[in-house]
TrEMBL record:
Lineage: Bacteria, Bacillati, Actinomycetota, Actinomycetes, Geodermatophilales
Database matches in InterPro entries: GntR_C (IPR011711), TF_FadR/GntR_C (IPR008920), Tscrpt_reg_HTH_GntR (IPR000524), WH-like_DNA-bd_sf (IPR036388), WH_DNA-bd_sf (IPR036390)
GO MF annotations, alphabetized: DNA binding; DNA-binding transcription factor activity
Protein name per the record: DNA-binding transcriptional regulator, GntR family
Species: Klenkia brasiliensis
PANTHER family: GNTR FAMILY REGULATORY PROTEIN, TRANSCRIPTIONAL REGULATOR, GNTR FAMILY
Region called Disordered, residue ranges: 217-250
Biased composition (Pro residues): 220-230
Keywords from the named record: DNA-binding, Transcription, Transcription regulation
SUPFAM superfamilies in alphabetical order: GntR ligand-binding domain-like (SSF48008), Winged helix' DNA-binding domain (SSF46785)
């Protein structure tokens, strides 16, 4: 008698609540430096304090949140030096991937290698420009597809770990790019990296870094700690406050 297949385990309460909170942060509903209090989140969602602590630790590991002694947990806020450091690490990984691709395929890469990145550019072009978080996510998928094409699991893993932090940065600054310009730049970028290799990556990301820094109104300062918000106020979505994630089921 054939053995019965067990269904794969579904998402846990931590997975669901982390996903909800991650979406809020990456949608810009929780601003840079805004406190995320364990007790408020537990009360608003009905989750246990243990679950909430695990969620906050996960998002801190993704660098979406920062936990500091005596200040608690808050949404990450980027100083200019943080922007430069993130872009430098991103550039090092993307350059390594492009160098591998050039060594494997020469100055003209096969269509099959470029297909995922080109598809990501096309998907970017299909978006409405007024939904910046969606545009930022689609833009990131172009670069991730390029890095993945190199076929290096370790480079891809390291690059993927930057994904949430990079999206948060772009959501916070919303550079003045329209979608057609982004599409044209990235279609050209896919051609340029074949011809120029890592130099094209450096030039592209230097321009990106300059645009991000120019879009910043001012370097973030340490924000004042907001007064506690009651679960009722959060549930009601009072002025200037994001509605909390829905309570995880099960």
């Amino acid at each position: 008698m054939p053995r019965r297949r067990e269904a794969p385990p579904g998402p846990t309460a931590v997975d669901r609540l982390a996903g909800d909170l991650r979406r809020q942060v990456l949608a810009g509903e929780l601003g840079p430096g805004e406190p995320v209090r364990e007790e408020d989140l537990a009360a608003a969602t009905g989750a246990s304090r243990h679950t909430v602590r695990a969620v906050l630790a996960r998002l801190a590991d993704e660098r979406l949140l920062v936990a500091e002694p005596y200040r608690g947990v808050r949404v990450t806020a980027f100083a200019d030096a943080d922007v430069v450091a993130l872009q430098e690490l991103r550039g090092a990984l993307e350059s390594a991937a492009v160098q591998l691709l050039g060594a494997a395929h020469g100055p003209r890469w096969p269509d099959a290698v470029l297909a995922p990145a080109r598809a990501a550019v096309a998907a970017l072009g299909a978006l409405a420009g007024d939904d910046w978080p969606a545009v930022a996510a689609a833009h990131a998928r172009v670069h991730t597809a390029l890095v993945t094409a190199a076929g290096s699991p370790r480079i891809t893993e390291a690059y993927t770990r930057l994904h949430s932090e990079l999206l948060l940065l772009l959501v916070h600054v919303a550079p003045a790019y329209d979608v057609p310009r982004l599409v044209a730049e990235h279609a050209g970028y896919l051609e340029d990296v074949q011809a120029r290799g890592p130099a094209a990556v450096r030039d592209h990301l230097a321009g990106s870094t300059a645009a991000i820094l120019a879009a910043r109104v001012s370097p973030p300062v340490s924000p004042p700690v907001s007064p506690p918000v009651s679960p009722r106020a959060r549930a009601g979505g009072g002025p200037g406050r994001a509605r909390p994630p829905a309570a995880p089921r099960g």
